[in-house]
Amino acid sequence: MLGNLSLRVLSVAVLVLAPGAQRAAAEPLAFVGATVIDGRGGAPIELGTVVVRGELIAAVGPASEVAVPQDARVIAGAGMSVLPGLADMHVHLLGGWDGVTVDMLGYQRYLNALLYAGVTTVFDTGNVMPYILQIRDAIAAGTIAGPRIYSVGSLLDGTDPVWPPISIVVASAAQVPGIVDLLADTGVDAVKAYKGLSVPLLQELVRAASERSLPVVADMWSRTGSYDTAAAGVAALAHLPSRTVDAATLEVLQANGTAVITTLAAKESFSRERLADLAFLEHPLVSDTSLPAFTEALREHAAREPTAEEAPLVARWQNSVRVGKENALALHEAGVMLVAGTDAPYPGTLLGEGIHRELELLVEAGLTPLEALSAATGNAARLMQADDWGTLAAGKRADLVLVRGRPDRTVSDTRNVEMVVQGGRVLDREALRYDPATDPGFGAGVAVDR
Ligand SMILES: [Zn+2]
After folding, report:
1. For residue 89, how far is its CA from the centre of ligand 1 (angstroms)?
2. Where does the pLDDT of residue 286 fall: very low under 50, low under 70, confident under 90, or very high at 90 and above?
3. Which of 120, 180, 209, 349 could hold 344 in an S-S bridge, CB 3.0 to 4.6 Å?
4. How many A from CA of 127 to the centre of ligand 1?
5. E-state strands within 246-322
6. How far away, in angstroms, is 393 Cα from ligand 1 center?
7. How distant, in Å, are the alpha carbons of 90, 109, 113, 338, 349 from that of 289?
8. Residues of the domain holding 250
9. Is 9 a domain residue?
């Protein structure tokens, strides 16, 4: 079992003063004349006003109905949209660009890239437990800059775990309550079931986790979306299934209130479809925040022909993208809640920019832009049973993004980030850019022993 990784080693790396965070302004902030998308899926408010006071949203509504405080700093919103800070509800804040290379010292760069892209919440669904919990807690305490983190700590996998350094092995149902207690006492926000668990172990895990009020998120690989795993009553599937979900499974997912985290972006990367056009590497959300060595390695990866061994896998992932999109629409139409997540980092699926790609893929799947935006805002908060973020309403925490354009019409306008506000603080996006003068830039990393 993992868990003895020294916290003392990590504390040396983690406690660097946060860039990007500015003190909350003493005066209120008022966004005036913007399109307001509140994250609940309804029609946007045209010419809306959002007032932020301290850490919270004080008022949201049509400009004609919301008074702008006299002492407010007014931000002219003409041609802009205000939306809740985005949530990427499937990430691993552990690796470099490829999902296999570990670059734990680079954590601040990933956190900065997320904030720079307007991502104010992430769900880390498998990591080195003491490392991710320390980062989560340091962000919550304001010691370092970063999005709000929900974390499962380590994965729970079977006796031949796929990712040993980030897994706890579960060999029998009798072990499950003790392991769940260990995770709960350590302070995780959820539990992640991985592919090596049998259905009876998954069922026991759901039972034990509910006693500790922990939601279970399941990634069973090819069994994700099978009837038995869907019927186990998990809070969410960690990915859209790669096989067509049948009617009985749709029904049980809907009846159990199981959400589905989408991760089409990762499927697109594994299929290499994303690598066919590397223009996204020039996008400011990528080029302003990435370690050049990672971008270069990604270019080399994209230029390399798949080996004879890899080629059939690539074809399988192409199918998985297609079926995943079909499932997204079918699940959505059946009333199953979709929650946007990317599974970043993988080659072409990047922390920060990735969620914008995920939104585009959800619209390609047939969701409206507003429905896709809800998947990355209001639905994300609902998955975590949080009611203090994810939507724009009086009393909610002031995590919001100002973008140029109308993402409710053209979802890719979310990429045009003009301003990010986190807990009422306007972030200094210049300070979040990759800077070789302050970033250690460890590019080599260490390959995970798989
Ligand atoms: Zn994952």
Report:
1. 10
2. very high
3. 349
4. 9
5. 259-261
6. 31
7. 20, 7, 5, 28, 14
8. 85-383
9. no
